[in-house]
Amino acid sequence: MIDSQKQKYSDLIKAEAQRLGFLACGISKATFLETEAPRLEKWLSEKRHGQMQYMENHFDMRLDPRLIVDGAKSVVSMLLNYYPAEQQNPESYKISKYAYGQDYHHVIKTKLKEMLHTLNEQIGEVNGRAFVDSAPVLDKAWAQRSGLGWVGKNNNLISRKTGSFFFICELVLDIDLAYDNPTTDHCGTCTACIDACPTEAIVEPYLVDGSKCISYFTIELKDAIPTEMQGKFDDWMFGCDVCQDVCPWNRFSKPHAEPLFAPNTDLLKYSKSDWEEINLEAFNKIFSKSAVKRTKISGLQRNINFLKNNEI
């Protein structure tokens, strides 16, 4: 494919991403992630993933999208803003901002399917697959390669323009495109995220022990939360935003414009006592189509009881 055609197709993809409401779009060559391979292997061997056994699966696929999509040549990475205009009652138990509205997997997959349909109409037959945080794809690595930001000391992708309150997704396609260049790291000497992490999960700059993260304990862990974590959760009952909330780059975060991410009003106004008394009917009403349903009401109640016991 000649360069002018690659650029034309890339421009089409980026224009379509903008039309669908994505914050940014970058493109990189589908290849083996040579830098990430030893890091991932070391992270897994040190059991930083805790009980997230699925992280051990499909090791080779995680590092090479050509093993997932036949003939893959390009990885199109996109960001979708989820920063809310309104936030929860500050005196209440807290839910990570990404889970305020409808489950992002479904919202984004719909957009990506529409994009693939448009590409097939405009370009011709384009084979590819859409990925949203639920397949063996290293989202942050590809987004970084595509110039959308850098992976910061808190292991989140950070953009100088918009901070880090966004979802990352990909289309892995079998066509050659014009590729973007990675950005540079702009964390500098800042250690705000490391200093603020309630459970010291950021064990060193750029290394997060997933098995110590509040998000892991409140979402992934199926057993009882370890007693040594009592008093360290800072009232987070589902997920945790601390390392993002303190990041200086998030002063550039602006409220999203996605109606499906709008929260139920009860979620914003509930007090601690409201959460402690939540029943199944209220849970289903507040979290209809939400990612919080993954933990079920039993999981949320376990977390709330753990936080409540900290206060006794």
From TrEMBL:
<feature type="binding site">
    <location>
        <position position="215"/>
    </location>
    <ligand>
        <name>cob(II)alamin</name>
    </ligand>
</feature>
<dbReference type="InterPro" id="IPR017900">
    <property type="entry name" value="4Fe4S_Fe_S_CS"/>
</dbReference>
<comment type="similarity">
    <text>Belongs to the QueG family.</text>
</comment>
<feature type="binding site">
    <location>
        <position position="157"/>
    </location>
    <ligand>
        <name>cob(II)alamin</name>
    </ligand>
</feature>
<feature type="active site" description="Proton donor">
    <location>
        <position position="133"/>
    </location>
</feature>
<keyword id="KW-0408">Iron</keyword>
<comment type="function">
    <text>Catalyzes the conversion of epoxyqueuosine (oQ) to queuosine (Q), which is a hypermodified base found in the wobble positions of tRNA(Asp), tRNA(Asn), tRNA(His) and tRNA(Tyr).</text>
</comment>
<feature type="binding site">
    <location>
        <position position="222"/>
    </location>
    <ligand>
        <name>tRNA</name>
    </ligand>
</feature>
<feature type="domain" description="4Fe-4S ferredoxin-type">
    <location>
        <begin position="175"/>
        <end position="206"/>
    </location>
</feature>
<dbReference type="InterPro" id="IPR017896">
    <property type="entry name" value="4Fe4S_Fe-S-bd"/>
</dbReference>
<keyword id="KW-0170">Cobalt</keyword>
<feature type="binding site">
    <location>
        <position position="197"/>
    </location>
    <ligand>
        <name>[4Fe-4S] cluster 2</name>
    </ligand>
</feature>
<feature type="binding site">
    <location>
        <position position="240"/>
    </location>
    <ligand>
        <name>[4Fe-4S] cluster 2</name>
    </ligand>
</feature>
<feature type="binding site">
    <location>
        <position position="190"/>
    </location>
    <ligand>
        <name>[4Fe-4S] cluster 1</name>
    </ligand>
</feature>
<dbReference type="Pfam" id="PF13484">
    <property type="entry name" value="Fer4_16"/>
</dbReference>
<keyword id="KW-0963">Cytoplasm</keyword>
<feature type="binding site">
    <location>
        <position position="187"/>
    </location>
    <ligand>
        <name>[4Fe-4S] cluster 1</name>
    </ligand>
</feature>
<keyword id="KW-0846">Cobalamin</keyword>
<keyword id="KW-0479">Metal-binding</keyword>
<keyword id="KW-0671">Queuosine biosynthesis</keyword>
<comment type="subunit">
    <text>Monomer.</text>
</comment>
<feature type="binding site">
    <location>
        <position position="133"/>
    </location>
    <ligand>
        <name>cob(II)alamin</name>
    </ligand>
</feature>
<feature type="binding site">
    <location>
        <position position="247"/>
    </location>
    <ligand>
        <name>[4Fe-4S] cluster 1</name>
    </ligand>
</feature>
<dbReference type="Pfam" id="PF08331">
    <property type="entry name" value="QueG_DUF1730"/>
</dbReference>
<dbReference type="InterPro" id="IPR013542">
    <property type="entry name" value="QueG_DUF1730"/>
</dbReference>
<keyword id="KW-0004">4Fe-4S</keyword>
<keyword id="KW-0819">tRNA processing</keyword>
<keyword id="KW-0411">Iron-sulfur</keyword>
<protein>
    <recommendedName>
        <fullName>Epoxyqueuosine reductase</fullName>
        <ecNumber>1.17.99.6</ecNumber>
    </recommendedName>
</protein>
<dbReference type="GO" id="GO:0052693">
    <property type="term" value="F:epoxyqueuosine reductase activity"/>
</dbReference>
<comment type="pathway">
    <text>tRNA modification; tRNA-queuosine biosynthesis.</text>
</comment>
<feature type="binding site">
    <location>
        <position position="243"/>
    </location>
    <ligand>
        <name>[4Fe-4S] cluster 2</name>
    </ligand>
</feature>
<feature type="binding site">
    <location>
        <position position="154"/>
    </location>
    <ligand>
        <name>cob(II)alamin</name>
    </ligand>
</feature>
<feature type="binding site">
    <location>
        <begin position="240"/>
        <end position="241"/>
    </location>
    <ligand>
        <name>cob(II)alamin</name>
    </ligand>
</feature>
<feature type="binding site">
    <location>
        <position position="213"/>
    </location>
    <ligand>
        <name>[4Fe-4S] cluster 2</name>
    </ligand>
</feature>
<feature type="binding site">
    <location>
        <position position="193"/>
    </location>
    <ligand>
        <name>[4Fe-4S] cluster 1</name>
    </ligand>
</feature>
<dbReference type="InterPro" id="IPR004453">
    <property type="entry name" value="QueG"/>
</dbReference>
<feature type="binding site">
    <location>
        <position position="168"/>
    </location>
    <ligand>
        <name>cob(II)alamin</name>
    </ligand>
</feature>
<keyword id="KW-0560">Oxidoreductase</keyword>
<feature type="binding site">
    <location>
        <position position="62"/>
    </location>
    <ligand>
        <name>cob(II)alamin</name>
    </ligand>
</feature>
